[in-house]
Amino acid sequence: DRIAAVDGGENGVHAFLHVDAEGALAAARESDARRAAGAPLHPLDGVPVAVKDVLTTRGLPTTCGSRILEGWVPPYDATVVAKLKAAGLPILGKTNMDEFAMGSSTEHSAYGPTRNPWDLDRIPGGSGGGSAAAVAAFEAPLAIGTDTGGSIRQPGAVTGTVGVKPTYGSVSRYGLVALANSLDQAGPVTRTVLDSALLHELIGGHDDKDSTSVPEPVTGLVEAARQGASRDLSGLRVGVITELAGEGWQPGVMARFQESVDQLVKMGAEVVEVSCPSFVHAMAAYYLILPAEASSNLAKFDAMRYGLRVNPEGVAAPSAEEVMKATRDAGFGDEVKRRIILGTYALSSGYYDAYYGQAQKIRTLIIRDFEKAFEAVDVLVSPTAPTTAFKLGEKLDDPLAMYLNDLATIPANLAGVPGISVPAGLAEEDGLPVGLQILAPALADDRLYRVGAAAE
Ligand code: GLN
Prior knowledge:
The protein has 456 residues and is an alpha/beta fold. The chain has helices spanning 2-6, 21-36, 79-86, 129-136, 153-159, 193-203, 221-228, 251-266, 282-297, 320-331, 334-347, 353-376, 399-403, 410-415, 445-455, and strands spanning 16-19, 49-52, 91-95, 142-146, 162-165, 186-190, 237-241, 270-274, 379-383, 419-426, 433-439.
């Protein structure tokens, strides 16, 4: 009922691309039956969840926000989805996203943008704006997103929700339609840090079906969140990243960030400034590595295997290549085409060393910056995004301005380390939510929950 009331229509939130009311109700009834029978229940059994439309769902459409997958119904569940179902969480439906997770505003969805519940004229962040908006608008208590350069954390920040990008490899990527395999990671979007911890423990852990899966269980997150809620951070060392502040950052965002840092000090944390000099090159490296991987991944959409197939106009007996061309032309949006061209160029033989090779070297420097920083501190903090939610349309024609939203979130993906965004209050100038980003070393996701629960 809540989804029906706020999601549809001209000025609706439009968080969902597909609602599975029947399936969700059936799962909820099964949960009730389990409870009535006194069966052992997972703590989230019966709690509905919304899933970003980039994760495959057996029998439910999966479009990745693209026309090219229109009509495709996957024959299998992503491991994350299978785990949700096994624990008894009803799947409410699939949430809107920038096409193939490319974007920071959800405006690149082929099915129209999602609106920010705080102000319907503003963007909900991206690419997972649908998941964040669904949680912020009370359409779903829990959601799953994916984060390749910030697509869980930045939407979390601008919608006042909690978003977590787990350590790379700790949540299975099986059934996550790849944007960039070396960067992608699924994670929780919720209203509280404890909710994220419960969801994160549920979806995390080793999976034989993902060759980059870490061979270790994911535990201790709920405990860490409970510990953090006591707001005692004595002995914790916090580093403020010098490079992720200053010019170009909205004053109201910086003010709330500073306030959060002051709070951490009051709870007993020791705060120092930490320089990560290579972070200033993260954006440039990311926009070579990501398009390189994406252009290769998207080659599989050849009009033969999945979804859309378009015949070229006026050709009586088109060749496979002509059909592929017409389909990709009609099925992919501008941002996707832009990145395919960029990635193909960066990977072409004469330019490989100059672009892709250089970007990989920067990636190594960023990893070293993190390693060095984490010798001195337990967690790093920054604002999650440089501004609050901007107006729909404001940055749509300026790809570089759009890319800059991920300035603070991209380094974590390049290094594989985990990050969380927690609400840090509202900016004074516009009354819109601000996010505090906390980063920890790989496999130390529990620290995000301890500090996040203290800060929220
Ligand atoms: N906004 C970034 C991009 O466009 C991040 C996307 C993501 O995390 N999926 O690539």
